[in-house]
Design a protein that fits this description.
By secondary structure, the chain is α+β, with helices and mostly antiparallel strands. Helices cover 38% and strands 19% of the residues. The strands form six sheets. Strands 12, 13, 14, 15, 16, 17 and 18 form a seven-stranded antiparallel beta sheet that branches. A five-stranded mixed beta sheet has the order 2-11-10-3-9. Strands 5-4-7-8 form a four-stranded antiparallel beta sheet. The longest helix has 21 residues, at 3-23. Bound molecules: zinc ion. Zinc ion is lined by residues 355, 432, 434-435, 437, 450, 452, 455, 457. This is DNA ligase. Pfam families: BRCT, DNA_ligase_aden, DNA_ligase_ZBD, HHH_2, Nlig-Ia, OB_DNA_ligase. NAD(+) binds at residues 53-57, 102-103, 132, 155, 198, 314, 338.
Amino acid sequence: MADEQAKEQQSLLSEKALAEATSDPAARIEALRREIEHNSYLYYAKDAPAISDAAFDSLMHELRALEAAHPELIDPSSPTQRVGGYVGDQFAPIQHERRMYSLDDAMGAEELDEWLDRVREFFGSIPELVCELKIDGSSVAFTYENGRLMRAATRGDGTTGEDITVNVRTVKDVPLRLRADADDGIRDTGVPIELRGECYMPKASFEALNASAEANGKQPFANPRNAAAGSLRQKDPQITAHRDLSTFVYAVGDERKLAVETQWDLLQWLGRAGFHVNPDIALVHSAEEVHEFCRKSLERRDALPYDIDGVVVKVNSFAQQEAMGYTARAPRWAIAFKFPPEEKTTLLRDITVQVGRTGKLTPVAEMDPVLVAGSTVARATLHNEDEVRRKDVRVGDTVIVRKAGDVIPEVLGPVESLRPADAVPWNMPAVCPSCGSPVVREEGEADYRCISIDCPAQALERLLHWASRGAMDIDGMGEEVVRRLVESGRVSDVADYYTLDEVELAQLDMGRTNKEGEPIRLGHTVAKKLVAAIDESRTRPFARPLFGLGMRHVGKTMAETLARAFPSMEALMAASEEELAAVDGVGPKIAHSTYLFLRTPDNVQVIERLAKHGVRLADDVEAAAADALPQTLEGLTFVLTGSLVQSGMTRDEAGAALKARGAKVSGSVSKKTSYVVAGEAAGSKYDKAVALGVPVLDEPALLAILETGEVPEVAGE
Ligand SMILES: [Zn+2]
């Protein structure tokens, strides 16, 4: 719209406003709200704005002014109240109206045909089907009552999610009130109705967010899906409001509450009701048309402004859906066609070596960043020296990187024809890149290790482990701060944390300079918080420091087992190896390594200094009970395969941590398996999971589960 017209409209509105506001402010406020809602709908859901931004701002301005003058007329559904207009119990559990099922996956055209055959067999011919893009975001359930958004929840385990209403209200294409057009489709507007969709972050916004995170020295998000999920889980809804999130809504919890009979009509109604509905949908009648839709979607994938990881195909008629019914884990009337893993080529700039907490050396491919299957990939583990040799990747090579949606990226190998003439085979360095000590490869082991006790890289990992959320949970003690503390020589073991004070921390040189060339320091605000966090960690239940010490074979659950049997460091150190081995679940191997650890003079010294600086190394019974984890994974069965290189956990440790949240852990994959966690070099269990359609999680997903207790969506709609 031309500026002239916009101005005209503005002045028109304000004249009318003056006249009406004085006579009937309530009516004027309602008219303004409807007008703003309508224009938001055109702008965000229809991508067809009808008025200029200036005119829109003017409407908002008038509404704010009127509401300020008449606070009794403020309503939580007003467009002015997206942020802060609602007080709810953030992250409290919310039960879904009906279970939010995951969909079965079809990996490839053949499996898609198998599903189409089953549908054809059931109905005698192919019924009407609806094809939709599978948005790679975070599922949200929205509950409306009397046309107003009352609640929004994450998918959670499918039955119970978390209350994220305050966050979702800030997402601008989510209607706080349904449009008047919605009424014809709802059987009883007074009955709560749950609508479902996907919240996502557009690719461009994701890139901008990561660029700014990197500029501020923060950890970037791995992909837009994680960015969307992370934004929805912000404690402060202001942060969510500043993230550019959008939604596509496509489902209803209980279709009987709507006067629509088909998925296609549901999508039309959702559009009329004011929701953002993805325009790339198709009503089809044959297997050929389904394949055509999938093929075209795959072609268009890169050109779309948001990530998709496949196509969802549903039987159109709700009555026919009911007739086909459900398996134990998914509807029979729908399938998620997953795009094949993507392969891209990029330049291998370097192979660096990472030193883990236990001294294990891992070669890592450092590549030019490349977008593969929705994630930017710049690094990938090469596992060990044998693996680098087997693949024969060399610095300077153009390499092929492969990634499927949920699985960690993998370097497949070099494009040999593009190899520079001077590229040489890679060798593990003879000395530790961190401390320069000779590295050791024990017989029968694939890994090289640095066994120096003074290795700074190991010290860094140990210090980070102590401060991590599962251990002492020292908020703010992240990699950058710890690295500076280690490099400055101020902190070399975990007891040193407890000798830091605010004045000293505030002066910590962060190793960067500002525009004037002066060194950036940590500063008083951060230092004060950090000292408070360190102080708070002094009184954690005994299992936490025990885990934090990073003894070999002693993960979180083992630490809890030991702390139950020996509720103080004094008691634990007094125990003989036999007494340790006699504890249920401990056994001779762990007893031996624990016994040795507690008798190594360096370790004893650290423990004594911790005690001296007021770290409580004993339990009171109450604190231990408070530390018990909620059993959020009850009813789920996990199978672990491959090695967990990122965390350095053994599969036993990971299994124990899952069990601590109520999950079952099994040794073999079957149809009953809920999830397979595939680490590096996952083998036949991974293949079997894919064959059976069991969702596969990568290690970051596992770590997210252990941290939040919630399973991220892998196959979910
Ligand atoms: Zn070293």
